[in-house]
Amino acid sequence: MMKRIWMVPALLLLLSFGTAGQNAGAGCSRSGEREDRVVLGDERTGEYYPLLKGQRIAVLSNHSGIVGDKVLSGGISERYRGGDRSLVPFGDPVTGPHLVDVLLADGMDVRAIFSPEHGFRGKADAGEHVGNSVDEETGVEILSLYARGSHLPSAENMEKFDVLLVDIQDVGLRYYTYYVTMHHLMEACAAYGKKCIILDRPNPNGMYVDGPILDMQYKSGVGYLPITTVHGMTLGELARMIKGEGWMEGADSLDLTVIPCLNYTHQTRYELIQRPSPNLKDMKSIYLYASTCYFEGTVVTAGRGTEFPFEVYGHPDYPSGGFSFTPRSIPGAKNPRYMDRLCHGVDLRGLPDEEIIAAGTDFSYLIDAYSKLDLGDAFFQGRHFELEAGQTYVREMIEAGCSADDLKKRWAPDVEAFRIQRRPYLLYDE
Predict the structure, then answer these.
(1) Helix, strand, or coil here: 173?
(2) Containing H/E element for 134?
(3) Tens of pLDDT along 315-371?
(4) In what order do the strands lie in the sheet with 312-315?
(5) Fewest C-beta atoms under 10 Å: which of 75, 195, 293, 337?
């Protein structure tokens, strides 16, 4: 098997990240870095390398699995391009080494990579079928969980490893599918007696909890657990809850370990360096996603096929008010809704981040479009809207003329109950 290192030379990789022994002091900082910076789970090799010795390893990850979210060329001001705060695309040379690189450089036996939605390189469209392959740089087999057919790993693939490492950047929303992939692999690990280790990462929307809880009659690939839209948990915390609440087959038999972040709380404003998926291109889109993703279940476009997806909304028949856009076929949005058609709508890019975060799950945008298009029930895309919203009452209240505040009042008791339910599984202060 080839063991070439991507992005950075092997010597630089080893100097920057060290071996397991050198990383055992997990609170240490690299030269020029603050002692209180957030330390990701994947950096704490002293905590999980002993669990990997003599084991065959599979990794659930994608382009976001950069160890320590390292930016080689400098500090946070260099994370963005031209002042527009666009997140770095996969393979940009300013980013540090991937977890797979580090494992191979330190002599670990990496047998397979499981890739989630959008593929290992993070470039495929939402829901696009991605086949199995071999990573050209390392020779490691890539096992897609978004190939045609089941999203569950086969028995043959489960026999290829002993330990599963999970290192992937989630954004903390119920309809964001990476946690669903993690859930499937947790069940598979329980069924086949494999150890599961979550290398935890901060949740960029971990500051609050909001939105309706999924009614499990609407369980699907875009909503798999009875959790709020914004659950406010890291993947490590959510994995603990999945096991603890018995939300998976074989929960009692799963050997689960979470390697927590250091110097992180749920009020830490953690900004990503890479796009977690093709259409979340900056932090504002990640904050707005808690509200604008609901347009995916309507006739309105949230801007796929533009340079500002999930930061705008529009429709060819929305009343013209000065803002227009035309979706095009681009990487990550090959066939966007209303491709090559002029859409009128609303530009949300000028909203301050603090205002977006304070509003939480905000249906005012969707209610505005519903009112102005005046399509009645034809505004909604059948059952797809309920799969996103998670409840029947959301559509019913919007059609009855209720406000976004009315909706918040309706789900407020469920949010409080969920906050209490999740408390035993939290690893970080609220």
Answers:
(1) strand
(2) strand 133-134
(3) 999 998 889 999 999 988 989 999 999 999 999 999 999 999 999 999 999 999 999
(4) 312-315, 343-347, 324-325
(5) 75
251 and 341 both lie in a single domain: no
Question: Which stretches of 148-209 are DSSP H helices?
Answer: 155-158, 178-192
Report the alpha-carbon angle 111-123-207, nearest 5: 90
Written as one string, the DSSP assignment of 31-64 is TT--TTSPBPGGG-HHHHGGGTTT-EEEEEE-TT
- Domain of residue 319 covers 283-418
Cα gap 244→237, rounded to integer Å: 10
DSSP 270: P
- One domain for residues 183 and 332: no
Residue type, 111: R
What Å distances lie between residue 117 and 45, 94, 123, 131, 365, CA to CA? 27, 24, 9, 11, 27
Indicate left, alpha or beta for 190 from its phi (over 0: left) and psi (-120 to 50: alpha).
Answer: alpha
Cα 107–chain centre separation: 29
Mean pLDDT in residue range 41-70: 95
Residue 153 confidence class, pLDDT cut points 50, 70, 90: confident
39 and 166 belong to one structural domain: yes
Instruction: Read off the DSSP letter of residue 147.
Output: S
Q: Which three-class secondary structure state does DSSP give residue 206?
A: coil
Q: Coil, strand or helix: which one is 79?
A: helix
| Same domain, yes or no: 307 and 176 | no
Could you tell me if residue 5 is inside a domain? no
Contact status, residue 389 vs residue 297, Cβ threshold 8 Å: yes
Is the predicted pLDDT of residue 298 greater than 90, yes or no? yes
User: To which H or E segment does residue 143 belong?
Assistant: strand 141-144
> What is the pTM assigned to this prediction?
0.88
Length of the chain in residues, anyone?
Answer: 430
User: Are 377 and 330 in a shared domain?
Assistant: yes
The answer to the question of residue 275 being in a domain is: no
**Is pLDDT above 60 for 2?**
no
Structure tokens at 416: 């409080």
* Per-residue model confidence as pLDDT tens digits over 174-199: 999 999 999 999 999 999 999 999 99
Do 310 and 392 reside in the same domain of the chain? yes
Q: Mark whether 237 and 132 lie in a shared domain.
A: yes
227 occurs within a structural domain? yes
